[in-house]
Amino acid sequence: MNAWGVLAVAASYLLGSIPVAVLVGRLHGVDPRGVGDRNPGYWNVKGHLGARASVPVFAGDVAKGAAAAALGLWAGGPWWVGYACVGAAMIGHAWPVFAQFRGGRSILTFVGGMVVLAPWTALIAITVCVATWLATGSFAYGARVGVFGFPVLLAFMAPRAEVAATGVLMAIIGLRFGQAWLEERARRPGPAAPPAAG
Questions:
Q1: Beta carbons of 93 and 61 less than 8 angstroms apart
Q2: Angle, to 10 degrees, between the axis of helix 107-117 and the axis of helix 160-187?
Q3: Rounded to whole angstroms, what are the CA distances from 98 to 92, 93, 145, 195?
Q4: Calpha distance 146→32 (Å, rounded)
Q5: Residues 149-155: contacts with CB within 8 Å, 24+ apart?
Q6: pLDDT at position 197, please?
Q7: Is the Cα torsion angle 170, 176, 180, 181 positive or negative in sign?
Q8: What are the angstrom distances between the C-alpha of 52 and each of 48, 97, 122, 198?
Q9: pLDDT (tens digit, 0 to 9) for every residue of the chain, 198 residues total?
Q10: What's the confidence (pLDDT) of residue 198?
Q11: Using the 8-state DSSP alphabet, how is residue 138 labeled?
C-alpha cells in the first residue's frame, strides 16, 4: 500500500465516524443511543422518528461506505485497498471517534462499499432484497436476505481473495452485533441475591 492508500484508509475511518443517526436524532430531540435498542442506526431512528426522518440516516450511512470504497480505488495500489477503506469506514461507524466510540452495526456502510467494489453482485443482491420484500411485506427480512446472501452470490462472480475480504468485512458486523448483545445483557437486572445465612 502506498502513502495515498494509508491516507485513504485513515480518511475512511474518519468518514465512517460521522454519526449520522445521532446528528439526525438531535434535530428531532432524540438520542438513538438512549432509546429502543440503543443502536445509532437507521432501524432505531425509523422506529422512533418515522420513515421520513430516517431517510437521511439510510442515505448517509450508505454514502459513507460508497465514498470510502471510492477513496480506496482513487488511491490506487493493490486491489484490497478498497476493501481496507470500506473496513475502516465500517470500524469508524461501529466505533466512531466523534461519538464516544458508541456506533451502529455498520450494515448500511458495508452495503454502500459493496455497491462500489462489486456493483454487479450488489445489483443482484438488491434485486433479491426487493423481491423478498415484495413477497413477504417485510423490508427488514428482505434486507437480511440481501445482505447475508451477498457473499454467496459473490462466490460465483469474484476471485476467492475478494470473497474472503468480504467475509472479513462481515465479521466486523458480527463483532459489533456481539458487543451490542453483551451490552444489552449487562443492562438486564440479574436474579436477586439469596438472603444471607443467619
A1: yes
A2: 170
A3: 9, 10, 31, 45
A4: 25
A5: 149/125, 150/114, 150/121, 150/122, 150/125, 153/121, 153/124, 153/125, 153/128, 154/118, 154/121
A6: 43
A7: positive
A8: 11, 27, 25, 61
A9: 789 999 999 999 999 999 999 999 999 988 998 888 888 888 889 888 888 989 999 999 999 999 999 999 999 889 999 999 999 999 999 999 999 999 999 999 999 999 999 999 999 999 999 999 999 998 888 988 999 899 999 999 999 999 999 999 999 999 998 988 888 888 777 655 554 443
A10: 38
A11: -
Instruction: Decide: 147 and 107 in contact? Cβ < 8 Å.
Output: yes
What are the grid coordinates assigned to 146, written together?
A: 440481501
As a whole number of Å, the end-to-end CA separation of the chain is 68
Q: Which residue has the cell 440516516?
A: 57
Alpha helices (H) along 76-159? 80-94, 107-117, 119-136, 139-155
- Within 8 A by CB and 6+ apart from 142, the residues are 128, 129, 130, 131, 132, 133, 134, 136
Q: Is-contact 101 77, C-beta < 8 A?
A: no
